[in-house]
Amino acid sequence: MGAIWVDNLEIESMDTINDAVQSGERALMLAEFKLSLNSYLSELAASPFRSLKNIIEFNNRHPLEERMDEFGQSYLLQSEATDGIGPTEKKAIAKLSKLCERSLEKIMRVHKLEAIVAPGASAHSLLAIGGYPAITVPAGYASNGVPFAICFGGLKGSEPKLIEISYSFEQATEVRRPPTLQHSVI
Q1: pLDDT tens, 110-169?
Q2: How far is 183 from 179, CA to CA, in rounded Å?
Q3: Contacts of 54 (CB under 8 A, 6+ apart)
Q4: Beta carbons of 142 and 113 less than 8 angstroms apart
Q5: Is residue 151 within 8 Å of residue 136, measured between CB atoms?
Q6: C-alpha triplet 30, 149, 154: angle, nearest 5°
Q7: Least confident of 61-75, 122-136, 167-181
Q8: Is 116:34 a contact under the CB 8 Å cutoff?
């Protein structure tokens, strides 16, 4: 289809990138989640929830319905305990920025790449830490019939190229099959 494949590129700092605590991603995510959710909820025209704190309280009042034994809410509680973007979060932002420059941005620049390709969600941390775009499309089916995917990712602003590449992949492979609905008879 005209693509030039550059295989097995070493991405610097992948161990750090894949560790949300070590990279600083977790600290930043927890703070940003609370800020963003509270902002969103406060702007709703009608909602019983106006903050993350309201959601946590609701979950505590309805532990069976919210399946608290199964899921808990440790991330919600950790997020609620944050207090905006402070020194810890600013340090995380700086670290994540450096990781982006030394990893994806560098490899794309050095090898003059338009996109990266990875199986399934294996590149999600690499793409997420910089807010980079990605498109995941069906790539095939395992022997047991379970579908698996391929991810196309790129730098900020590469969305048109990623749409073009993923669409071309889908048209060339024609892998996607609509799911079959199985009806059970009682």
Answers
A1: 999 999 999 998 999 999 999 999 999 999 999 998 899 999 999 999 999 999 999 999
A2: 13
A3: 41, 48
A4: no
A5: yes
A6: 60
A7: 167-181
A8: no
Output DSSP code: residue 183: P
Q: How far is residue 114's CA from residue 119's CA, in Å, rounded to a whole number?
A: 17
- Strand, helix or coil for residue 184: coil
Burial class (CB in 10 A: 0-12, 13-18, 19+), 145: exposed
Contact 149, 163 (CB under 8 A): no
Angle at 13 between CA 18 and CA 128, to 5 degrees: 45
Residue 149 bridge partners (DSSP): 138
Whole-prediction pTM? 0.78
In this structure, what token pair is assigned to residue 75? 């991330």
Tokens for 126?
């690499």
